[in-house]
Design goal:
single chain, 277 residues, alpha/beta, seven-stranded mixed β-sheet, 39% helix, globular
């Protein structure tokens, strides 16, 4: 805790955030190449109960980078510094994909608020690392080409285009909002640190646990149809964080807030609710 005479820690100038809703704070941390708009399908339900602090990671959605923003450790440092500077040490946190791994890492370091990790990365091994890197780098190259010819957004707004471009990430991409998909894929194509982050995540160490003593409750949600962070990796996440609550999304891929928004919002709100008196 900070006393009245304690100087606030440095706030990273590259950490952008927006706030909406009312109630106790809830920090949302998006994934690699995403933007704050990735949360749009569940924002109304969450904002009715919580003040949302929606982060934009350095290097994403036009935000500037720091020297280490192309690494998991660097982005985690930026988020941790923002949380400390804003005195949100006890705030609930929700992360998706890369963001999910970051909130688990902060729980490992002792973040006092509850955290919810949706399809966290960092639990791949052996050939899974090669699969992760090769498929994401190929997808990134495809998106770069489509963006250069200005065909990415129009294609993503069509049902066949979404079905092709999100085959690895969604259980039913044809059902998703074409405008959200178009914006998020275009953002990934224009994320300058994307390739470096993919390489860093694929080659770096596996995510460690467990949550530190005194950390808030941990919840892990996983889509059964995730073709990026494969469902079998969930067992490793559960072993690393043995006290965590675990939830399977039966009809979701890598982004349950897109494939099952109502169930995702419900899991988040139930998981971060204060314990009954």
């Amino acid at each position: 805790m900070f006393g009245p005479d304690t100087p606030s820690p440095r706030v990273p100038t590259v950490m952008h955030s927006t706030r909406t809703g009312s109630g106790p704070p809830l920090i949302l941390v998006h994934g690699l190449g995403n933007t704050p708009r990735a949360w749009d399908p569940i924002v109304p339900a969450l904002a009715a109960r919580r003040e949302l602090v929606i982060l934009t990671l350095p290097g994403h959605d036009g935000a500037p980078t720091e020297h280490d923003s192309g690494t998991f450790d660097g982005l985690t440092r930026s988020v941790a510094e923002f949380v400390a500077a804003q005195r949100l040490d006890r705030a609930a946190m929700v992360g998706s994909s890369l963001g999910a791994r970051m909130v688990l890492e902060l729980a490992r370091r002792g973040h006092a608020g509850p955290v919810v990790a949706l399809n966290p990365g960092g639990f791949w091994r052996g050939g899974e690392r090669t699969l992760f890197r090769s498929t994401l780098r190929a997808s990134l190259a495809l998106l770069h080409g489509l963006a250069r010819t200005r065909t990415l957004k129009p294609l993503a707004r069509t049902v066949p285009g979404r079905s092709l471009l999100l085959a690895q990430l969604s259980a039913h991409p044809w059902k998703l909002d074409g405008n959200i998909v178009a914006a998020e894929l275009d953002a990934l194509a224009h994320t300058p640190t994307a390739a470096a982050l993919i390489d860093d995540l694929a080659r770096g160490p596996e995510q460690r646990g467990p949550a530190a003593p005194g950390a808030g409750a941990v919840t892990i949600g996983w889509g059964r149809h995730d073709r990026l962070c494969l469902a079998r990796q969930a067992a490793r996440a559960r072993a690393a964080f043995p006290s965590a609550r675990f939830h399977w999304f039966a009809h979701s891929g890598h982004y349950p807030m897109w494939d099952e928004p109502a169930a995702t919002a419900r899991l988040i709100l139930d998981s971060i609710a204060p314990p009954a008196a």
